[in-house]
Amino acid sequence: MQRLVVLxxxxxxxxxxxxxxxxxEKFRTLIQEVRPGWEVLDFDVTSDEYPPSWQDIxxxxxxxxxxxxxxxxxxxxxxxNVICQLDEMKMPMFGVCFGHQAIARxxxxxxxxxxxxxxxxxxxxxxxxxxxxxxxxPKSFRIAAAHGDQVSAIxxxxxxxxxxxxxxVGGYHIGDHVFASEYHxxxxxHFIESLTDAMARNSDPAVIERARASFFAPADRALFANWIxxxxxxxxxxC
Length: 239
Description:
Blueprint: E1 3-8, H1 15-18, H2 23-34, E2 39-44, E3 59-62, H3 74-89, E4 93-96, H4 98-106, E5 110-113, E6 119-127, E7 140-147, E8 149-153, E9 158-164, E10 167-174, E11 178-181, H5 189-199, H6 205-213, H7 221-234
Parallel strand pairs: 1-2, 1-3, 3-4, 4-11
Antiparallel strand pairs: 5-8, 6-7, 6-9, 9-10, 10-11
Helix pairs in contact: 2-7, 3-4
């Protein structure tokens, strides 16, 4: 059994957000769908909540957020410092979207606004240079996406492992202890469709149309959930 910590960076407190599970719960559900016995703890880093100790923690998940990883909010700068500390400890870290961007920025990469429109819906990502926990991966997979920023330069030791439409750095890894994805394996089909509906009023109609057209088939949620679990199994925390 593994004991994971979710560092929840989601700043959305809207009525929409309150009507759906928080990100910690989303990840707990995702992980326990493939590893039912694992413990997943949730901390709200936007309120400066962190585990009192990293002792007996096997890995960390850093969530997405509508906040931008290009800005310097006080809580975000604190998170960047924690990421650096965890990197020094070689604590296994998995980051999605904002979390993927935060890890990149903390470790020397760069985050910028998308060169094209907001990316929303289910996209097809192409696999390259898969790490051990992604072995036997298909050439491509379908996964939920929702981001207006992305990693434009990876940290020095990072290796890109997938890319998607208008997103050259769809995912990367650093050694055995960092695994990061621009995409959202924790989002169910129901959630990404509901999110698209909620964003429709204030978004480019073309973005919404493309998103809705992508819902013809589900995302490869179980495939990615198993990659995440295999990542944490592959690399035990030294703590």
